[in-house]
Specification:
Blueprint: E1 7-12, H1 19-32, E2 37-41, H2 47-57, H3 66-90, E3 94-98, H4 101-111, H5 116-126, E4 134-139, H6 142-149, H7 161-177, E5 182-186, H8 191-204
Parallel strand pairs: 1-3, 1-4, 2-3, 4-5
Helix pairs in contact: 1-8, 2-3, 3-5, 4-5, 4-7
Length: about 210
């Protein structure tokens, strides 16, 4: 749980799972309810973090090592946490993150096969032990995610189905490891039904 007085919501899942769609639907819901909220994406969300995003996601000639990738991801997250997330939460507002610390565990841990416990410690340092109050994990098969993603893929999306399969397996592992905050949703269901489940859970837990 977040130690701040605001509400911190994160969305996770493999590429093409439907996170962005659900975040957009939650955006409309919160706007209608006149709630104060901030939506952020990872990597990115600040000037420095967006510059790191360009290095991480754009296809280029220079190979990025797996450890460098993990350090850049968490460096971007540290800047985002200090500059945007903590100040907003400390004002008692809602922060919605399109990916947060779990993405590093799933992609660099599961996908790149880096040590998970080392990545957890690295994340805790980068975020100053800031955790989402709830994490919505939208689960789909990698083949479906690939179909939804289309042909325009960034450097990480281009890693292939085997990579995405390892990422998904790690997310499932994380959903058990952090079951106090993880809510797993079937990404094959109708998007309106998924949205309804998200809002119902947030209301039930008094997070909205």
């Amino acid at each position: 749980m977040s130690t701040s007085k605001g509400v911190f919501i994160s969305f996770e899942g493999i590429d093409g799972c439907g996170k962005s769609t659900q975040i957009n639907m939650l955006y409309s819901y919160l706007k209608d309810k006149k709630k104060e909220f901030l939506i952020l994406r990872e990597p990115g969300g600040t000037y420095i973090s967006e510059e790191i995003r360009k290095i991480l996601l754009h296809n280029h000639d220079h190979e990025i090592s797996d450890r460098t990738e993990a350090l850049l991801m968490t460096g971007s997250r540290a800047q985002l946490t200090d500059e945007k997330i903590l100040p907003f939460l400390n004002q008692g507002k809602i922060v919605i993150a399109d990916r947060f610390l779990d993405s590093t565990l799933a992609y660099q841990g599961g996908g790149r096969k880096l040590d998970l416990s080392w990545l957890i410690d690295l994340n805790n340092f980068a975020t100053d032990n800031t955790f989402p109050d709830v994490t919505f994990f939208i689960d789909i098969e990698p083949e479906i995610g690939a179909e939804r993603s289309g042909e325009s893929k960034d450097r990480i999306e281009s890693a292939g189905l085997e990579f995405q399969s390892r990422v998904r397996k790690c997310y499932i592992k994380l959903s058990r490891l952090f079951n106090q905050r993880y809510i797993t949703l079937d990404g094959n269901q109708d998007k309106k039904l998924i949205h309804k489940k998200i809002v119902s859970h947030l209301l039930e837990k008094d997070l909205l």
